[in-house]
Amino acid sequence: MLSYIRRRVILGLLTVLGVSVGVFMMVHVVPGDPVLVMLFELASPADHQALREQLGLDKPLHVQYWRYFSSAVRGDLGRSVRSNRPVLGEIAWRIPNTIRLAALALLLAVVFGGITGIISAVRRHTLFDHAAMVSVLLGLSMPSFWLGFMLIIIFAVRLEWLPVAGYEGFRYLILPGLTLAAAPSAVLARLTRSSMLEVLHQDYVRTARAKGLRETVVIARHALKNSLIPVITVLGLQVGYLLGGAVITESVFAYPGIGRLVVDAILARDFPVVQGTVLVIALGFVLVNLAVDLTYALVDPRVRYG
Amino acid sequence: MRRTWTVLCVVFALFALLTSGQAAAPAPRSGGRVVVALNAGFDTLDPALAVFTFAREIMGNVYDPLLIRNPQTGEILPGLASSWTFSPDGRVMLLKLRQGVIFHDGTPLTAEAVAFSLNRLRDPAIRSPFAVSILGPVQSIESPDPFTVQITMSAPFAPFLDSLTEISLAPVSPAAARRLGRDFGQTPVGTGPFMVKEIVPNQRVVLVRNPNYRWAPRFFRHRGPAYLDELVYTVVPEDATRMAQLVRGEVNVLYNAPAREVRRLERNPNFRAHFKQQSGFPRVIILNTTKWPFDDVRVRVAVAHAINKEEILKTTYEGIGEVAHTPLSPATWGYNKALEQQAYPYNPDRARQLLGEAGWRAGPDGILVKDGRPFRVRLWSGNVPPPLIDAQLQQAQLRAVGIDAQLNAIEQAPYLAAIRRGDHDLGGMLFVSADPDVLYIIGHSSQITAGWNTAFYRNPDLDRLLEQGRTTLDSRARFQIYTRIQEHIIRNVPYIPYYVITRSFLTTSNVNGYLLDARAFELFHNVWVTPR
Lengths: 306, 532
Hints:
The structure holds 2 protein chains of 2 kinds. Chain A is mostly helical. Chain A is built from 14 helices and no strands. Chain A has a domain at 87-299: MetI-like (MetI-like fold), CATH 1.10.3720.10. Chain A has helices at 2-29, 34-38, 45-55, 61-73, 87-92, 95-122, 127-141, 144-158, 171-200, 203-210, 215-252, 258-267, 271-299, 301-304. In chain A, helix 8 crosses helix 9 and helix 9 (171-200) packs antiparallel against helix 11 (215-252). The longest helix of chain A has 38 residues, at 215-252. The model of chain A has no long low-confidence stretch (mean pLDDT 83). Chain B is α+β, with helices and mostly antiparallel strands. Chain B has 3 domains: 28-62 and 192-278 and 505-532, D-Maltodextrin-Binding Protein, domain 2; 65-173, Dipeptide-binding Protein, Domain 1 (Dipeptide-binding Protein, domain 1), CATH 3.90.76; 280-500, Roll (Dipeptide-binding Protein, domain 3), CATH 3.10.105.10. In chain B, the strands form 8 sheets. Chain B has a 7-stranded mixed sheet, with helices on both faces. Classes of the chains: A mainly alpha, B alpha+beta. At the A-B interface, helix 3, helix 8 and helix 12 of A face helix 4, helix 7 and helix 13 of B.
């Protein structure tokens, strides 16, 4: 197992390294002079030269990359072109907000999606199953901004049960959390259902039933663990969606997370912020999937001894 | 008995009728909180560096300008400076400061502080974008005595009085600025009616009352500290979310409310709509005079005849605002109503006729052709409404006279860079300003690429008039010069003005004393709230 973990960690680091190269190249791949693109308003030739020097754009490419990489490793991701604040600072205080929202959405997705999927599989072809699958279709098809606005109109404006936007306490997380959870719970419901169905038809499950075990024990002890493997994989990928999809949800609910930060920065061509945020999101993504891979080690005995 | 009853009923009915709807006018009261929702973020709250409109809005409550324009009449009045004089040659200005003004950190406002703040804009380490544009030919700024500021210029500069009303030139605390350097914008210290309690970048600013504030400009009825305990600015980019927050009461003021929503809520007693005409260079169509075929003035005149400004006013702006015929908005000093007659009116037939005279013939698909080249041009635009909708309407109107304008809509930031570089054939822009010198920035040949002469228009006669307008201090003479400048621009059509911007604001009905300054920024010193 140790070699498995070691392999995974090395692959993770290589991925982050690759992303850093891609992120670094972003500035140079965009057509035109990157400084001109970044400093659009009211900048003088002296400003252009100053930014050019600050970013080291007059040096050869590999020197620039080394500068970028060595600073990044030390935590210096440059300064925002707009506000002149350190990029890492801008990202750092927003990350907990996005994690909070993504975690809530993930929890809702796992609970609603997982339970729906399990029940649908066990009660296959019943009314519950059909209703659940129709809801799944809706959950996947609804654009998140539309769902978000609908929830605002119903629960915040009409019923006044919850606040509209921003973040000043747990109540502010509920509507954006529901919005963000819609698509992942649909995916998880479907996946859990089909995975569960496949497992329920295996011989060892029939054996367990034949041994006289109660149905709930059959499902919980024998079937569930094995059906979880593909679900966990997808869950890891869903986190990517949550971090990315949070962008739209965060805009609709004016929620102070990194999704909004990166959208604002892209529209304003604030390259240091875009680069820093993409790097951090990639790092987070790699860490989450590393955790997923390690979870396999716990759940799948074939991996543990492989 | 019956008669008595009837009389009594009538009297009672009359009494009820006369007193119904007569709510007692609420008296100002101290306390409370107002939340303002902005639709975009701000860069910094350092006056020397901030270029975003919303930064300037917030700074108007944290700092005081040296001079201030009367919000109703536009007249320039004393602010932190109580009086001013010019030397006979117009090159040296003396400002006398009010006494007893202190910054939020307790340090006093002196001439040294003002000189420091103004010189800060010229400091190369600060890299202020206003160093050249607003300060103009300023050579030196000194403080000969504690309450007198002496400004020396290389030549008389008429727009300078207007520059002193800009918040970018507002005094900042030298102690704080020296200590914080470029980070001053994160913990700003000014003299204004509100102090900064908390800044969450691009998200929220929380301001609290400055208890020592006693130096509000004279035309304000209320002279002491602000009524509000707290003033909060929050950034909510989505229109629908902002509206939901207003309806729900989570915010009290919508800055820049969408026209559609204003129309919807205008008559609702729970809300109030406020309007303010913006001064300066109105919304115009830019014609790149160096690009074929707009180098031919006949073609430019024809395009002017092809634009239906009323349709744009009705469609994009729901009738809020008015059509622009001259290069200055009516709220700007220098605007001359008589010039409206000289603008080329909407007349598509005349447009086609003029193009025909210039050698254009209709091709098989309706697009005009000359010397084998079809009249196909690129119309650039920012990619959000309202300018995006304007561009689409203009595209259709041009098509109707045989011009194929292909729309190229991109994000605001690169769009501004592109029109300054001259990538466009046609474009759109506006320029907010309280002084007619804005026409120098958009029309003088030295402002091509360096400034905002996005029509790339070069004309020595116009250049000369614009230079005269800057250096003439006598109001009557200056007004005549700007009339001639506007006539030139109307006649030669490097730009086609089409819409005078009127900004709309929505407030909940419990917000009283709401005031918009001469530049349509909100002033909250005079605002109080009544409980709902």
